[in-house]
Amino acid sequence: MNKIPKRLKKEPLIEAIWQVQFESAGAGDVLPGLLYAKLRKDYPGIQLHRLPTADIPAIVAQMDPNLRFAAKVRLESSEASFLWQVGDRVATLNCRKPYTGWTSFKKAILDLIQSIEESSLVPEPQRHSLRYIDLLTLDEPPDLSALQINMQLGQYQIKKLPLQTRVELADGDCAHVVQVATPAQVQLPEGVRVGSVVDLETFIAKPIENWEQVRNQLDLLHDRSMHLFFEHLLTPQAIAALDPEY
Fold this sequence. Notes:
InterPro entries: CHP04255. This protein is α+β, with helices and mostly antiparallel strands. It is built from five helices and 13 strands. The strands form three sheets. It has a nine-stranded antiparallel sheet, covered by helices on one side. Strands 1-13 form a two-stranded antiparallel sheet. Strands 8-9 form a two-stranded antiparallel ribbon.
């Protein structure tokens, strides 16, 4: 069993996302303005951007599962690694590269939860999750050698073939959705990079009752996500190559 490091000096993480889903009339129209006013105190240069999905009629978005939880507005600032997104049924906090670490990310999540709760627009959350997107470049893609994945189709070994796959895993009170794509091209601040993308989303598998429950579940989501990533996804050789600190 792999030991979970405190951090990786050669960090493959390109984005971390906390998302909450809810049912609330008008949240996508009113909540962005409330968040903007509050965030300006810490980030004077923050800007509010209307996304193309904001022009989709509400009835169309509600009926289309691909649009139902789409964000309508983005708030971002060059002064922060974070960006905030809000839709009629969703709010997200995104931490772009470089990752600020769990302590800082969790604090920003708690601040967002407080803002949503104080708005009185969303009395009850329905689902929340932590999602980590990593770009592995240890091997020339397509190559799954850095992952504990063994796939075969008849006589065909898929270790070094182009691949896109998605799997759902149960994990006690949590569940995971793991998506792997190789080769994948990603646009980063330093330019375009090619590698293997590992997209891991972890969420609570049972109904959520209130915002206090969401707060109390954040560390559980983080712990279970790290456990799966380091103990069941990355190989010991890959972890060593990423220069871990324990």
